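Exercise 7b. Backbone tokens:
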């Protein structure tokens, strides 16, 4: 069973930074796309940023210019560097990876990010 484990969430003041990490239990070469989503109470889950195996990135408008997604194949880890954080970025951030050869996609359990003074 593939497992994704997120880390790096926490409480940060507005304008601060956090770096989230998502480590997979298998090589991330097995995945087509790796992404970060977020969900806050009463809102739909939304894509924040994604990166393909080839390194092509995609960002939600709210993340563009503030967040950076990257990956370290050797560590089986995908990162989300979040700068200039705002209270509206408060959410549970979840990692998602979809299988390169097959229909499966996998989710982590999430890490809480709270932006508050």
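Sequence design result:
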């Amino acid at each position: 069973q593939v497992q994704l484990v997120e880390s790096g969430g926490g409480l940060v003041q507005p304008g601060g930074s956090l770096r989230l990490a998502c480590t997979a239990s298998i090589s991330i070469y097995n995945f087509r796309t790796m992404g970060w989503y977020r969900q806050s109470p009463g809102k739909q889950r939304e894509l924040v940023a994604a990166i393909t195996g080839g390194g092509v990135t995609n960002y939600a408008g709210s993340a563009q210019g503030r967040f950076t997604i990257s990956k370290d194949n050797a560590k089986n880890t995908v990162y989300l560097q979040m700068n200039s954080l705002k209270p509206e970025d408060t959410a549970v951030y979840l990692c998602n990876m979809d299988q390169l050869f097959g229909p499966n996609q996998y989710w982590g359990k999430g890490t809480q990010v709270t932006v508050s003074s």
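Instructor comment: The radius of gyration is 13 Å. The longest strand covers residues 31-39.
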